[in-house]
Every structure is written in C-alpha cells, then in structure tokens.
Design goal:
Helix content: 10-25%
Strand content: 15-25%
Structural class: alpha+beta
Number of strands: 16
Strand order of the largest sheet: 5-6-7-10-16-11
Largest sheet: 6 strands, antiparallel
Number of helices: 7
Order of helices and strands: HHEEEEHHEEEEEEHHEHEEEEE
Distance between the termini: 33 Å
Length: about 400
C-alpha cells in the first residue's frame, strides 16, 4: 500500500505537471482501496497528507466515514484540478488523470458535505492565499528565567478590510487536549474542573485581538441587529485592542464582518480559545509555569514594575507569541467567547463546540485576563463570566473563522 510520504510526493508531482504513469497507477490504486479516511480537506492547492488519515488539499473540509462519499468528492476535485495542474497541456494529454477520476465508483450519499452544526464541517470557501509567517517563541523556568527562545512558522491568510487595515487569521490544526486545570495547579479554581479531553476541529483564529482601526471599519458598515459606537474604547490608538464592547457588540461585529467578507466569522468557543492559547502546552501559561511583565501585559503585583503595562492596554503584538503564532492570549484584555455561563465543566461538550444549553445565557464567558488582572487570572485555564450587556475597559475580543 502506498505510504503517506509517497502520496505527498505523488500529489506534488501532479501539481507540478511532472507525473508519470506509475504515479497515476499508484494513486488510482490508493483511491480505490482506501476505506478508513475520516477527514478530507479539498481546494485549489494540495498541501499534505498526515498520518495516513487526513488529506489536506486546501479550502474545503469534508468529514464523512462513508468511503464511497470520500471517493466521490475526490473524483470531483481531481476533475476540477485538471486545468490547473498543467495548463499548458490539453485535456487529451491529461487523459490518464481524467480516466482515474472518472473511474472511481459513483455514490448516492447526499451527506458527504454538511454544515458545521452537525458532526461534520466544511472549511471556509474561497479563502485568500495561505502563506507562512515567522515568529519567536519564549519559554521560561519557574524563576522566570528564559530557558529557550526559538523561531517557528505558522500558516495564515490576510483579509483586507480597508486601505491599510487588514485582519490576519492563523490556521489552527485540529487535535485533542485536556481542557481545564489539574487539582494541583496553583491558584486554580473549581470552575476550571473537571479536566476533560476535548476534540477540536480545524479553524482559523485572529493573530491579534480586534484593534480599534479594525473596529471602526466594521462599525461603519450598515447595522444588522444593533448600533455600534465608532469609538467605544477608553484607551485610544489604532493598534490598541478595542475595549468597552459588550458580548452583543462583539456578536454584531462578527455578523457585519461576515456579511462584508462573505465568510462566517464568529466568537470562539471556550474550548477553541483554550486550545489556541495553550498551543500544545499543559503548563499554567504557554510560556511556562509562570509569567513575567516582559512577556505579557498584566498586573504584576509585587513585582516592582515601572511601566504602563500595568495601567492600560498596549499595542497588539507587543509581547511574544505562543507556539501557534497567536499574540496576547495572556493579559491585555479579557476576550469574549460564545459560551453561556456554567458553574464548572460537568456536562461540557467534548467536541469543541460552544456550550449554549443548560446555562445562564444572560452571562457569557471571558478568557485570558487583562492589563488589570493578577497573573493567576491570566492562566490558560482561568475563566470568568459577566453580563453579556456589560462594557468594560478590560473587555475585548478576537474572531475565528471556520
């Protein structure tokens, strides 16, 4: 059976128009014989095949355990890709690929692609070009001494909102993680427990919190459900995070942004937020077991700080990113999430979705802490809830797209 690495190489050669007869034969055999693929990403550019289970080809994601449905989707996309694989060649010269695509068995399964409200999901259509950016990741020890600094890369796309105003969205691969705080985590609370294993689907999240410049662009768009103030923030600055916005304001922003762009933007679920914040770490902070004022904007009590970081917001991206390439997840401003208030995690969803039932819908979850929060409230597991209509100079948000 063809290995995942061999399949990656085959797809690369097909993409570049240098495939040979053996490539077509091997790929055709794999398509006809595979029956255990659960997740499929399809689109304009072939990217990767991981662990023999996931095919990452681009924009669209299909979740389906029906092998015939998966083959039908592959047939459709392979046919669509013919003209872009090697545009200099005629359809006749690509007849082997056409034959391979059309040879796959037909299916009548109508559930191969379904909406994000079910067990399956489709990634945003027609995304802008996905590129990579580079960033530094810092790790400190229990004394706050830097023990590691390394360069990493992450994939992202850029939305143009207006002249010189952009929105950068970082790709977050799906995965599983332990959500919540263990019993022995210092200054953790019972509402952060029980720890539970959550499965997260792929999504994109804002590289930064929504800024005041971004807010103004969207707040100027036509009203959908409620009026938005153009300048709600206490601390003024284009690259400062917008604050003094309620949960309802953040929801209105997402709806207007979605209408403008043509893709669904929303607030993250609480589980998505924590998964993105942790970035594969299990320590209280993605930096390590503690944080220091040179790593985040929070209220560092008794740390002899002499800076504005304890007194107001700072520009987004002023501190190091986490291993996913996301900035300011600890401190700066509390971030609204979609979830309703619940006392703890008893009965919480295990699929990463927003927890909207059996809770207090008038109160919504906030995460991450703020410039005015002590360190323990800025932990990855720390959670807070507030009246959804409240505005505060410590409350902001970032958006996700899926």
């Amino acid at each position: 059976m063809t290995t995942p690495d061999e399949l990656v190489a085959i797809f690369d050669r097909i993409r570049d128009g240098i495939q040979d007869e053996r490539d077509i034969l091997l790929l055709g055999q794999w398509l006809k014989n595979s029956n255990d693929y659960n997740v499929l990403q399809l689109g304009k550019n072939i990217i990767n095949i991981a662990d023999g289970k996931d095919i990452h080809i681009g924009d669209r994601t299909y979740y389906n355990t029906d092998a015939a449905s998966i083959k039908a989707v592959l047939r459709e996309v392979l046919t669509e890709l013919i003209d872009t694989i090697n545009p200099e060649k005629s359809p006749q010269q690509n007849s082997q690929i056409y034959l391979m695509a059309n040879f796959l068995p037909q299916t009548t399964n109508e559930n191969a692609v379904v909406t994000s409200n079910s067990l399956t999901q489709q990634l945003p259509p027609n995304l802008p070009a996905i590129t990579k950016f580079e960033f530094e990741v810092v790790t400190i020890d229990t004394q706050g001494i830097e023990i590691k600094r390394c360069l990493k890369q992450a994939e992202y796309f850029i939305e143009s909102l207006a002249d010189s105003v952009i929105l950068e969205m970082v790709s977050i691969a799906g995965g599983k993680f332990q959500m919540g705080a263990p019993l022995d985590e210092s200054e953790s609370l019972e509402d952060e427990r029980p720890q539970h294993l959550v499965t997260i689907k792929p999504f994109f999240i804002g590289k930064y919190l929504i800024t005041q410049a971004q807010w103004r662009v969207i707040a100027n768009l036509p009203k959908i459900k409620r009026r938005l103030e153009l300048e709600p923030s206490c601390f003024k600055g284009d690259n400062l995070p917008v604050e003094r916005v309620s949960w309802y304001d953040a929801q209105e922003f997402c709806e207007r942004l979605s209408r403008k762009i043509g893709r669904k933007y929303r607030l993250s679920s609480e589980a998505e937020w924590e998964y993105a914040c942790r970035a594969k770490t299990s320590t209280p902070f993605h930096f390590g077991k503690i944080i220091r004022p040179n790593l985040a904007n929070y209220c560092g009590l008794n740390e002899n700080i002499n800076s504005t970081a304890c007194q107001q917001t700072t520009e987004v991206g002023s501190f190091p990113a986490n291993a996913f390439g996301i900035y300011d997840m600890h401190g700066l401003v509390w971030e609204w999430c979609a979830d309703c208030e619940h006392e703890d995690y008893q009965g919480a969803p295990l699929d990463g979705s927003s927890w909207l039932n059996d809770g207090n819908s008038e109160y919504r979850i906030l995460r991450g802490g703020s410039w005015n929060s002590p360190a323990h409230l800025c932990r990855s597991a720390s959670r807070f809830s507030e009246d959804a209509s409240i505005t505060d100079k410590k409350f902001g948000f970032r958006v996700v797209c899926s």
